[in-house]
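lol ok so funny story. i was supposed to be doing the assay writeup but got distracted and ended up predicting the structure for this chain instead. priorities right. anyway since i did it might as well share w the group, maybe its usefull for someone
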Amino acid sequence: MRGRLTEMPNIAVEQWLDQRYDRRFVVHEFPTVDAQGIPPDAREAVTRCVLDLIGKGRTVVIIDSAGAERNARVCEAIGYTRMAQSQPPNNRIQPTARRARRG
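and the output, tada:
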C-alpha cells in the first residue's frame, strides 16, 4: 500500500511497518483508484489472496486507504456478512472465586 500516514507524510505504510516491526508483516498490494469502487478483476485477485492466506492459517488485515467501500466489496466476495450492531458488553469486573481452605 503506497498510501501515506498522516503522522509521517513522507513514508509509505509498508515502509512504516517494516521500520517499526522489522518486516514482521507481509504486504500484498492491489492498487485501485479512490472513489471508483473496486474493479471485478482486482476484487477477484484480493479474494483469492485472502482466502489462500486464511487457508494457510494466517491472520489477514484488509486496509482501504480511502474508507470502507472497497473493503466491504471484498468481504462480501469472500462470504462475510455485516454483523448486526449489538449492545455493548457488561464491563463489570467479576470477583475472582476464592478457594475454601481446609483446616
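The chain has a mean pLDDT of 77. Residues 13-78 form one domain.
back to the writeup now i swear
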